[in-house]
Known about the structure:
The chain has helices spanning 111-125, 129-147, 154-159, 168-187, 193-232; strands at 10-11, 17-21, 28-38, 52-60, 66-80, 83-97. The chain contains five helices and six strands. A hairpin with a 6-residue loop joins strand 2 (17-21) and strand 3.
Amino acid sequence: MTNRFAKLDGYDPLHSTVGGECPHCLCHTTLTVISHSKLRGSDLEPTDGKGARCLMTLLCNWCSKESVYLRLVTIKKTPVSGGTRDFYTTFDTEQVWPVRTPRELAPEAPETVREVFAEAALAEAAGAFRLAGIGYRATVEQIVKERGAVGNNLYERITGLKNLGATEEIVEAFHEARFVGNDAAHDALAYSTEEIADIAELINEAVLVLYVQPAQRAKMAAQRAARRTAAKSPTP
């Protein structure tokens, strides 16, 4: 089940508000469902495992811009006073508009790490989620290699990051990426849009801690040192 937009599941959400991130302003805010319709030929009770498909338009209550999604759901008839109503349960959402652009890591990350991540992000943006999962696992492998962790396999090298100062959260995030990549490579398991996005965001957060913040602190320290030196230099 998806959790991208809180309070989306239930009866027809038309004119209701949901919580989530707007793809335009990137704010986590409320969005109003201004249109919601089931596509013709979409089954109520899916037999192909894909479910029914609904086209949904959201209006951001922060930037007032619209975004369009293909909502994948199961729909069950539930009894209500005087008849029945459709109850929607979401298991995935696909962003239709604005067009998704591939993710990028911060420039402070090593070049090889950024290149591998960029290839995985291209696969994610194209909807090739198995390839994206494999690519994000490869990104983790490059980070672990760059950090100098040792071990007989990726599991041991990720776990060994603890001895190099990595937090437990980073180690757990990297193991999650390893699981997803292994499942995609060995079992052809396809994770949902949001599950792959979560792995990408976990890697991005780890890069922030491992590379971006240390670079920012080093820059600030250099600026303070330069200021001290300038203050102590004799005025000509």
